[in-house]
Amino acid sequence: MATDFHQIYSIQKANFPYPWKKEDLHQEFEKNNNFYVEKVQDQIVAYCFFRVSCLEEMAHLIQICTKKNKIKTGIATTLLRKAIYDLCAQGCKRLFLEVAHDNQAAIGLYRKFGFKRLNTIKKFYRDGKDAYVMQLEFV
């Protein structure tokens, strides 16, 4: 597990301009049972995690990330598909997320799954970028 966390933290640092603090990500990793990884030859190449509200029957995608050398290989699609299947099995009826308004690759991935844009949050990110709120209703 410790090795998994270090690999996840390394992927996050390489991909996000403002990564989570190591301690905060570690705490989430330790307590969150909705943390998913994709491995190739025993190495993590992508991860995602969610927070689930059983009362509201919904999940919130907190973060999804793929190693830079594995982007556009279908790994994020596979990972998200597995996670959505599991969330449905947990009784979730919908999944929502925030995505940077200019992250066309991520927006394309989410649209492929049927996510719909609900609204925009102005200056959501530290760098002042807006975020789209997107939602997927499970049928």
Explain the overall architecture.
The chain has helices at residues 2-15, 22-31, 75-89, 104-113, and strands at 35-40, 43-53, 58-66, 94-100, 116-121, 131-137. The chain has a single domain (2-137), classed as Gcn5-related N-acetyltransferase (GNAT) (Aminopeptidase, 3-Layer(aba) Sandwich), CATH 3.40.630.30. A six-stranded mixed β-sheet has the order 1-2-3-4-6-5, with helices on both faces. The protein is of the alpha+beta class. α3 (75-89) links the parallel β3 and β4. It is built from four helices and six strands; from the N terminus they run ααβββαβαββ.
How does the SSE layout of this entry go?
Blueprint: H1 2-15, H2 22-31, E1 35-40, E2 43-53, E3 58-66, H3 75-89, E4 94-100, H4 104-113, E5 116-121, E6 131-137
Parallel strand pairs: 3-4
Antiparallel strand pairs: 1-2, 2-3, 4-6, 5-6
Give a quick set of tags describing it.
139 residues, alpha+beta, Aminopeptidase, six-stranded mixed β-sheet, 4 helices, 6 strands, globular
